[in-house]
# Entry
Amino acid sequence: MTSSIAERVTIIRAQLPPSVRLIAVSKQVSTQLMREAYGAGIRDFGESRIQEAASKQIELQDLPDITWHFIGHLQSNKAKKAVELFSWIHSVDNLHIAERLHTIAQTMGTNLYSCLQVKILPDPQKSGWTVPQLLTDLPFLSQYQSLQIQGLMTITPWGLEEEQILNVFNHTYNLAQEIASQKWANIEMRELSMGMSGDYELAVKAGATMVRLGTILFGNRL
Ligand SMILES: *Cc1c(COP(=O)(O)O)cnc(C)c1O
# Structure
């Protein structure tokens, strides 16, 4: 890529509807490049490893208005650290971790926001609820008020045709509508975290409110 990060941020920001939150996925990206993105107006950064995020947060302490989003698979033993480091967890992917995050956030008295990660199509590479599992677990999730569930997150399986990708995003949108119509306490369905560098335009078409972009902003990861 010949353009600068600032140029890419500006171009992509201009393509997105103003209501869509642009999360710069900075996993494996240096804090120097993150500073460039910050300079171009980025305030939301997505990380998928706890340890990496912890050291970056120390290095970027002078930029206090960053919102940190966790987007990776979260292991139980890292849940406490995750609540300490992140405002958002997009990748709550099973009932056990949901309950743990709720308990930790409640005990610590911290403000946490989360999305439930759902798998619309089978994908052995990815974690997340299947649709039937998620619908079954809603009564339990509804008790986890400190999790502050805001919506759904999805990742499309690798190698789909454009039409299939759009189908996955539309299906996720419809699922969020269905859950919202059930009016569970403590479960909001105002956010849809979907779309990465290869498919974010389709995600936006289908109603994404948050896109998670790495490669298209920062270039290829090592
Ligand atoms: C890495 C990652 C992204 C960003 O992917 P790009 O294709 O580099 O934009 C988005 N979401 C999740 C969950 C990721 O792990």
